[in-house]
């Protein structure tokens, strides 16, 4: 029988599964090998018949005196060994399987056999040794021990070969080092752990392969081992790999000494614990994250402001996610995501990236976005450069959701490329949820406080309101009753609350409350419903009701709120107003002038009989617009559209129109000239609500004006003839005068007569001889004076504005003649500067007549006595109640005189 073939068929590990079970004797006896099992203490659990046959005896199951082996005696390496030295004991202690070991077994009858042993440890789910199974068979090569060819050296060589194989294949790195820490021998597993070959490792020291941070502790322990203070120590440290990385290893260093106790070398057993360390670090990281979450949750309970929440969130983000920098951004009212809190970021960076969001504002389920290496991301180059200048190598965008909607994000920044693990993202999302919930909770708390404040204010308003404010349920039962209700209806709250609202309704309105409740149940609002209610004393009062539905939190209508206002005084005022309007209409009807009114849009709202008589028709109320007349014309006979009439202008421009005239054409073709007096009507706030117009028939006045015009024309004709005769006489006398002084005086008088004649033409050339246009007057007088002066003196008459009365015409014409004549005579010798500039302006209700020239000017006091013309000007100025002034730079004479009618 070949036990190696049998083991290959069954598998030692498979057989090992039988150790802690209770296999049937029939099954065990069918096995072609001897087999037995022990528990962790070495007590025999079971064995088969082949084992008992080779032992030559039947051991006692579970007996502590027969531990580890069922043979009578056992010899190993040519010498007898105790039960604690048997291969089974060694496997139970070390957990390392033994395969193919040979030993001599002595039976109780004194016979011996050689056996080959295969022992495997049995482990539980945690990897602990709980027993072992030994499969053995009689040796087919050595025969019995008494055989003369059984050589001891073969056993030693086989053992050494087994030990060498064990040394190379054991699941741990083994290195032998001298007292200087140089590596003398390494096994294959150590080369696999470090990535270096044995040749590369030999001769190097154990400290060269250790990370600098871990060398001091290892060196200190090794020196104690050399000194004999300790024979063994265990340390956990990091060992470099050939690829530049490192592994975590658990190193047990054991001394090997000679018989005298001197140190020979140390055997260092090294297990790779990198996965365990990573798990420990991950666990530590999770614990830190959980601690940060707990601290954040604890702090949030005490936050009273948004700023406190933001500060706590930044602490939690940096602690839980292991980053030094973080920020929080929220959508503002315009939908732009803006920084609300940050840590470790420059102002330039915040300005550059503010407003950026990886999600749309209405994204239904935003997910985290993270970049483990920003430099290798697909971000736009400009944004990537901005992030790079901030020395951000990795970044995570975590959405903040508030009340089911995206509210913003927080960001975690790392200074080096960073791998974002799934647990880390889960923690980040938990932080974001806590942050969003806290913000919502704070907003809700603030809203609650605001609502409470508003409720208190509302309660105060309700209680202090002069209006009656009452609430009732859908059955019409009164629930609340304020002081205003008590004052209006006379019932105290305890008398009203709990009773039906119908106690206030008069008997002649039995269906009114039912109709109101029906509308409330439909969710309708009743606005300004005017009705009558009965007070406690039985008196009826006019009130205006506004009734609104009251809803619960689910939106269901549970009652109604009623505001009642006493409108008795208003009703009385309306009656008085109606009476006043009636009297006003009677008054307007009695006035002999045509009067009508319109609304703000120009539609006719009232007219009297005089208006019908003037228009020759009856206007249509609320239809005809702007004027009661059939057709309208301007005084010159051109058509005047109704929407351009004085009444339309008054309404559109919001001003009274005066001084206008128009002609109305009746349906029978007759025309009536009239003067309108449209005036806008305004309410208490100043808003135009309509207009009133009075039309004054001026037919008789027009006829009188025609007669007056004829008389004025005749007067003007005769005056003009007389002035022309006088001017001719003066001109003739001047021509024949022998004295230069007489000639000058006569010429000046002739010029003055000409100026007066020019004013006369302007004054009487118009239908209204009481006033005249300033511009026309200035041009007529200036042109007359120009004709008396040399042709090479240019005179510029600048445009004038305003209207002058006839009582200033003649004095002003004489003053203008004197000033222009003087400027022409003394305005300078240089022809290029001899221009005379004339004008009439109006400032702040005053007129200013001025004459400018290019001459040197004069001093008023110096020439006052010797110039008759100047004396004339000053006298006429006093007549006009004006002030006369002269200046020399430029040469200017001006007359300011008062406001004219």
Q: What separation lies between the terminal Cα atoms?
A: 151 Å
Strand content: 25-35%
Spatial arrangement of strands, main beta sheet: 2-1-7-6-5-3-4
User: What profile does the largest beta sheet have?
Assistant: 7 strands, antiparallel
| Uncertain runs | 1-20, 143-152
Overall radius of gyration: 63 Å
How would you sum up the global shape?
A: elongated
- DSSP strand count: 36
Query: Residue share in helices?
Result: 25-40%
Number of helices: 26
The residue-averaged pLDDT reads 83
By helix and strand content, what is the structural category?
alpha+beta
Compose a concise summary of this entry.
The protein is of the alpha+beta class. The chain contains 26 helices and 36 strands.
Note down, in words, how this protein is organized.
This protein is an alpha+beta fold and 901 residues long. The strands form seven sheets. The protein has a seven-stranded antiparallel beta sheet with strand order 2-1-7-6-5-3-4. Strands 23, 24, 25, 26, 27, 28 and 29 form a seven-stranded antiparallel beta sheet that branches. A five-stranded antiparallel beta sheet has the order 9-8-12-11-10, with helices on both faces. The longest helix has 43 residues, at 422-464. 28% of the residues are buried.
């Amino acid at each position: 029988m070949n036990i190696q073939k049998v083991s290959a068929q069954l598998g030692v590990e498979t057989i090992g599964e039988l150790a802690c079970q209770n296999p049937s004797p029939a099954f065990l006896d069918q096995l072609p090998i001897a087999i037995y099992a022990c528990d962790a203490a070495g007590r025999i659990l079971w064995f088969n018949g082949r084992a008992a046959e080779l032992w030559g005896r039947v051991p006692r199951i579970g007996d502590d005196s027969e531990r580890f082996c069922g043979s009578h005696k056992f010899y190993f390496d040519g010498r007898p060994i105790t039960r604690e030295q048997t291969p089974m004991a060694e496997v139970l202690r070390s957990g390392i399987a033994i395969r193919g070991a040979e030993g001599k077994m002595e039976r109780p009858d004194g016979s011996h056999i050689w056996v080959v042993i295969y022992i495997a440890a049995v482990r539980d789910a945690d990897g602990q040794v709980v027993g072992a199974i030994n499969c053995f068979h009689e040796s087919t090569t050595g025969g019995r021990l008494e055989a003369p060819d059984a050589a001891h050296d073969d056993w030693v060589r086989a053992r050494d070969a087994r030990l060498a194989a064990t040394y190379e294949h054991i699941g741990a790195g083994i290195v032998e080092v001298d007292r200087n820490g140089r590596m003398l021998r390494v096994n294959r597993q150590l080369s696999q752990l470090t990535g270096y070959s044995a040749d590369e490792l030999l001769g190097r020291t154990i400290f060269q392969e250790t990370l600098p941070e871990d060398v001091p502790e290892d060196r200190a322990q090794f020196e104690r081992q050399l000194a004999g203070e300790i024979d063994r120590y265990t340390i956990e440290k990091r060992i470099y790999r050939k690829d530049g990385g490192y592994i975590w290893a658990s190193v047990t260093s054991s001394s090997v000494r000679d018989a005298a106790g001197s140190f020979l070398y140390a055997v260092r057993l090294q297990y790779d614990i990198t996965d365990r360390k990573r798990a420990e670090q991950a666990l530590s990281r999770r614990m830190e994250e959980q601690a940060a979450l707990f601290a954040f949750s604890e702090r949030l309970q005490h936050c009273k402001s948004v700023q406190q929440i933001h500060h706590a969130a930044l602490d939690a983000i940096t602690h839980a996610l292991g980053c030094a920098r973080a920020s929080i951004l929220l959508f503002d009212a315009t939908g732009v995501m803006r920084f609300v809190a940050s840590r470790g970021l420059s102002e330039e960076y915040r300005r550059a990236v503010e407003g950026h969001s990886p999600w749309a504002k209405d994204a239904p389920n935003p997910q985290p976005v993270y970049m483990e290496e920003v430099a290798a991301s697909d971000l736009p180059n400009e944004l990537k450069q901005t992030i790079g200048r901030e020395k951000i190598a990795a970044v995570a965008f975590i959405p903040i959701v508030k009340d089911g909607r995206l509210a913003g994000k927080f960001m975690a920044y790392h200074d080096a490329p960073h791998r974002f693990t799934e647990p880390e993202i889960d923690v980040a999302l938990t932080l974001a949820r806590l942050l969003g919930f806290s913000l919502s909770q704070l907003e809700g708390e603030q809203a609650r406080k605001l609502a409470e404040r508003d409720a208190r204010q509302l309660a105060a308003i309700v209680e202090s309101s002069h209006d009656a404010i009452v609430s009732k349920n859908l059955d019409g039962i009164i629930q609340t009753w304020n002081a205003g209700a008590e004052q209006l209806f006379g019932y105290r709250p305890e008398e009203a609350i709990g009773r039906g609202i119908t106690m206030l309704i008069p008997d002649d309105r039995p269906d009114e409350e039912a109709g109101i409740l029906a509308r409330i149940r439909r969710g309708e609002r009743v606005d300004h419903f005017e009705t009558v209610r009965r007070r406690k004393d039985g008196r009826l009062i006019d009130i205006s009701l506004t009734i609104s539905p009251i809803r619960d939190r689910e939106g269901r209508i549970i009652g109604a709120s009623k505001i009642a206002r006493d409108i008795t005084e208003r009703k009385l005022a309306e009656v008085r107003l109606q009476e006043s309007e009636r009297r006003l209409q009677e008054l307007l009807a009695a006035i002999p002038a045509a009067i009508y009114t319109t609304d703000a849009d120009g539609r006719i709202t009232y007219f009297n009989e005089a208006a019908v008589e003037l228009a020759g028709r009856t206007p249509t109320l609320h239809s005809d617009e702007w004027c009661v007349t059939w057709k309208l014309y301007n005084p010159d006979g051109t058509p005047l559209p109704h929407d351009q009439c004085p009444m339309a202008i008054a309404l559109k421009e919001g001003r009274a129109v005066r001084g206008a005239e128009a002609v109305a054409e009746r349906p029978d073709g007759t025309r009536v000239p009239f003067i309108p007096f449209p005036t806008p009507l305004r309410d208490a706030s100043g808003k135009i609500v309509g207009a009133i117009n009075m039309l004054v028939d001026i037919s008789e006045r027009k006829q009188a004006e025609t007669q007056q015009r004829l008389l004025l024309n005749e007067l003007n004709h005769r005056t003009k003839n007389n002035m022309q005769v006088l001017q001719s006489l003066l001109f003739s006398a001047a021509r024949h005068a022998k004295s230069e002084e007489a000639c000058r005086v006569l010429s000046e008088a002739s010029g003055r007569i000409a100026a007066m004649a020019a004013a006369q033409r302007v004054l009487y050339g118009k239908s209204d001889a009481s006033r005249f246009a300033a511009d026309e007057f200035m041009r007529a007088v200036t042109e007359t004076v120009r004709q008396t002066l040399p042709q090479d003196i240019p005179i510029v008459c600048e445009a004038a504005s305003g209207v002058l009365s006839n009582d200033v015409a003649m004095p002003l014409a004489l003053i203008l003649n004197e000033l222009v004549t003087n400027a022409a005579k003394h305005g300078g010798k240089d022809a290029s500067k001899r221009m005379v500039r004339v004008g009439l302006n109006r400032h702040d209700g005053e007129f200013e007549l001025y004459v400018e020239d290019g001459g040197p000017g004069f001093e008023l006091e110096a020439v006052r006595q010797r110039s008759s013309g100047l004396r004339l000007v000053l006298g006429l100025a006093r007549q006009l109640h004006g002030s006369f002034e002269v200046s020399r730079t430029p040469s200017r004479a001006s007359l300011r005189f008062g406001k004219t009618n």
